[in-house]
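Running log. JK asked me to keep both predictions on one page so they can be read side by side. First protein, sequence followed by its tokens:
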Amino acid sequence: MRKINVLHIVEDLSIGGVEELLRIIAMGLNREKYNVYVCCIEEGGQTAKELMEAGIKVDILGMKSYHNLFNILRLKKYIKERKIDIIHSHMYFANTFGRIAALLAGTPVLISTSYSTYYEFKRRNILMINFLSKFTDRIIAASNSIKEFAVKQQRIPADKFQVIYDCASTDKFSKHVDSFAVKRALGIDSDYQVVGCVARLNEVKGHAYLIRAAKEVLKNNPRIKFLLVGDGPLRQELEQLSVQLGIKDNVIFVGSRRDIPEMLAAMDIFVLPSALREGCPLSILEAMAMSKPVVASRLGGIPEEIEDGKSGILVPPKDSAALADAIIKLLSDKNLSVTMGKAGRKIFEEKFSKEVMLNKLESLYDELAAKKLTKRILYVDIHGDIWGGGQLSFLSILELIDKTSLKPIVVLPYEGDLSKRIREMGIEVCVIPFGSIKTTNIFVNLFSIFRFYALIKKRKINLIHINALRPMFYTGLAAKIAGVPVIWHARDLKANRWIDRILSNLARHIIAISKIVAGRFPWYENNPDRLSIIYNGIDTGKLSPRPRDSRVLHEFHIEEDEAVVGTIGHLEPRKGQDIFLQAASNVLLKFPNSKFVLVGKDMKNGEKYKSDLEYLITWLKIEDKVVFAGVRKDIAEVISIMDLFICPFKDEAFGRVVIEAMAMAKPVIGYRSGALPELIEDGKSGILVDPDRADCLADAIIELLGDRDKAMKFGEAGRKIVQDKFDVKTTVNRIEEVYFRILH
């Protein structure tokens, strides 16, 4: 499966709620599904350092101006170089610059997040937000109130939004902290109660109202400390206010801190006195995660976090008296405070935990990736039936291909058991008849090309994978006209050189199933962009060593103590069954207690070759030693009864049955021709002999039947070779790499 490249764009990564949220997202996304990148438009910061230390790719562009259009081009180049699939931007400037650069770069999926209600936006800001929303796949709102605000003020359609609440790190805010030790470090006596706030010291957060409320609370109980965690432009003004009100000694300003769990542990009550606006404040979620009762303003998305009277108390914004009353109520009623804290923790786990947020975010990524990143692959085969190894390999590709990012559609020339098997996988199959180029009427050929072209356009095909030579003419021409790249999976050893030359020009890439097949295309030698060698693969889990299948032995009338030598393949002269039988006659002189099994069918009308083989068996007088098994679906069970597997095939392009036998730890004997030397390591996993030499083949069989230890070692070595070199997952992964290289 190809990983999805996700880029998060922010202005900077200093210390703050959005920065902490991005840290959770970047570190929490599933690394098996996503490659995560983070880009800071302006500068880095403490959070950026933490992400880098955790192995997250963070780049800092260092832009000094938002009015320089070349900065957008820099960001566009950055996006293109990393082949980003999904851009997720955060906050206004990153949302603006990130989306413009993403549009220029042609990034498939655009997501932006809105964290608050920005009443101070000017008309030009709102127009820009509205314009960019038209090209944005989804806008994440951190609360329903943010969504409603954007729909009303920015006139963005409601269906563009998805509400995904912010979260706090479950692990980080679940650990036990010694609150007395924290108080001691802050210079707070252990018998003092602590009312705390974690927020940037600016006008939006309303700290002045909390400090004024503090004066009233202290009148009721002077043994209280107010702990303000955070820094900002109003710090000096707020410190001066505490002096003016005569409560300086009871208000502690600790500045920006990274040890937020420790700060919260020291608090008995958490207060957020927001005055102007709020989205989904992270500090409240962190307090809830620490089981702290909360007093906060009834503003923005805060009522979506706090259930008034259950997990905390909500008060009107800018109302110091109401703040003071709520704080006094919780400080005076310990049971109520504890009950609200526990309720808040439960709500946090169900609604605002890291796990909940990440699951929703990944679901959104996957949903949009399925819509925008999924590429439609048109597969074309020459048969509607399962004719041989080519179709079996084709089926394994369709079964294992990454269907989260690739959507297969198959074209076959007629209905058959192959089309049935493919439909059972849930894959669409279309039938477009096409015959031999030499014998079919030219008008029929043109009609087939037109039908392929129409299908390519209608289904919006991104890539075509052709599993044989003949469809390269029809589909290749249609694809050329439609401007869609083609992969030609070359599976035959022999072909006309000038036809190869012509058809290869229709292919963007050729996959050869062996080195010897790749030799058909010398003009692409040493050009990996145009030609690659990808061996067929098999499922080594399904094809594994096992005891002899007694059912098959009984069906073939073979005794347990009889040696079995077998071969599998269509009955045709090229497959060399006549040489196999001649060798069998010689072997039986040495090992009379042996049986020879031929699996396969004569596919020609009249079965003339099978008749010739039956005549040869009679002439050799070995009728009772040979089993014609016909076509079998239980190949693994049939191979299980064999002591040796023989592949007397000349000019074999690959030899799938050879690696099937090797996977089942059977020693193999084959010809020193075609692709077999690429599969069989002579003297290690089997024996290679000269083609068409029945005497040499017989000698090799006699050698391994007479030396069972050597045969066993060959079988074990063969199994390992298949696992290392011919596993189907490796094959499909390499094919996917070719796809994505072309598609990107």
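And the second, directly underneath as requested:
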Amino acid sequence: MLPRIGLPITAPVTVYWDEHHIPYIKAETDDDLATALGLVHAHLRLGQLEMMRRLSQGRLAEMIGPLGVEVDRLMRTLDIGRAVPAIARDLPEETRRWLEAFVRGLNHHIAAAEALPREFRLFALQREPWSLADLLTLGRLVSVDVNWIVWLRLLGLRTDPGWPLLWRRLVCHEIFSPDAAGSTQPVLTRGISSAVGAAPRSGSNSFVVSPARAASGAPLIASDPHLALFLPNPWIIAGMKSPSYHAVGLMVPGLPFVALGRNPWLAWGGTSLHAASSDLVAVSADGQAGIRERDVVIAVRWGRRRKIRIRETSWGPVVTDIPWLRSGSDVLALRWIGHQPSDEMTAMLRVNRARNWAEFQQALGGFAVPGQRMLYADPAGHIGRLMAAHLPHRRGAAPPDLVTEAGATDGWNIKITGNQLPSCLDPPEGFIASANERPAGTDMLIGHHFSPPDRKQRLDQLLSAEGGLSVEAAAKIQRDVHWTAALHQRDLLLAWLAAVPGRRSAREESLIAELRGWDGAYGADSRGALAFELLSCHLARRLVDHRRREAYAASWAMRGLIWDDVRSAAAEDRDRALIPAVRGAAKAMAHRAVWGTLHRLRLGHPLALMPLVGRAYAVADLPAAGSSETLLKTAHPLSDGRHASRYGSSARHISDLAHPDRNYFALLGGQDGWLNSTTFADQLALWLRGDYVAMPLTPEAVAATFPHRTVLAP
């Protein structure tokens, strides 16, 4: 199925494959490597790529009909590709050659492949060649601001009388902390975060340890990105070698660089920085006089074309023209760093070729969006961390509102880069952990919404333990399902229950007994985790207003915010709510055997969400371990019913820098994007066991262990 003859290359290229359909491409020139990469990406994920391309350009209605019109309206208004012409014009020649060669490989596959993925038939797609602009726009799609979807869910609340207080809680809120277990006063911890607008949610864990803390005597690095849980997986595992490039790692389908991985000289991982790279600007009456208008036409499958009018200001597009984004009578414009030219492609290609900390830092100085916290390790024993982002030069506290005034520059007149933000090299602790927490050590306003500190604190605890960290121990950390804060919450629940008089049924006593004996681990077979979640859910419903719970659900700290409301409720109100909450939780517990009975891992193509025909595109419905705040992240709402995690750990990477071939990866699902192929979901069993696929870096090890090979000919 892979076109092998007549490629736009200058010499034969060898592609080695393992049994999981993972490629390692060896080419004699850089151009030929980039072309082969494009061919292989199309071979594995063409259906996924075409869906992503059309989404990035606001062409979803061409595929799915009228249901896609409002999404297209949103994407055309956001205009994520606005800076693409300027980016393309200013590309360094070496980057342009690489990207154009990658596009040639994509297009050769599209033109020459005899069979096309099922998505072409389902969505009536045509063989349409890619351009450099298409590739750069796709890069902007995966770079959207993590704040956007928070705004989408909060705009409608700005007219509520309690909005100012709610906003302050969301950007700098009081949540339960283990340190407050014996206190009646809220403890201030800052950190919530959000989802990503048009792209999946973005989170992740990453850690690196120094030689003194590693079993092998060399640094060890591990990352597990958190994204939407659908198939095909949002990552591709691949390796490559040419005169300038030699790397293995995780790649985003359609983007020609290794995002997380290693080369012979260093390894890198990272997490989302949750950077505040956007503002919503209130356009004054005077400012509205300068609004520009343009019309665009949306093609609609099975329907008539739709013409929509888009208004733009000097700050950016008017987003409140979209009906479901209106906020009272305000006219709001989006100001985004990503609407300005920046060159992430060059930055990441230079990371792929970097040989030391200085080159790594220099490369990422050009990385603007989406903001990342990047971790580093090298075989010489150095470990480090830096921030890769371009941001407005803002200092101090979070803004007083979701919306800023049009007259305020808010630091946008001066841009800062990652080189001006804190970094560290070889910290005395001997390890670095990152889990989307609020950055320390700077008075710069990096962002508004961060994850609670729970995952970061758990990583610190595990990495501080005595004894050298092995690959096996790192893998165990990536599967950790313990949530320390839940035990403190459990203890308060038990104390409150003990203070409430009255007889309880045997079923209620059983629930309390399970709660008392729980160890804080969210194993799929845990009855204690189930009891805790059911009681938390029923108590929250009785003490926290539904509209407020919806606002909290926009954040990454929903559970902490809800718990703080429960904990700070009047004692008599809480006592009154506990009785029916225990009764309701005990009733639900009787029908739910263990946590995994309620909490499910449902995997399938996005079409699996469709009514009637969706079952044909579902792959698995399994008991799930983990929770929203555990290292093995399987995010979920507060619920007493069966539910699926749609966001969480999606891939894993571990590299032991003691040897170039000690690299291990796993995808939740599989490598191939073709529905029902043998490698569409073959790594699922491996993932559930906690196993990994070995991905050697040296060509000799690849040739010895990858049993299949394809020779691509000019």
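Observation for JK regarding the second prediction: Residues 107 and 129 are 5 Å apart (CA to CA).
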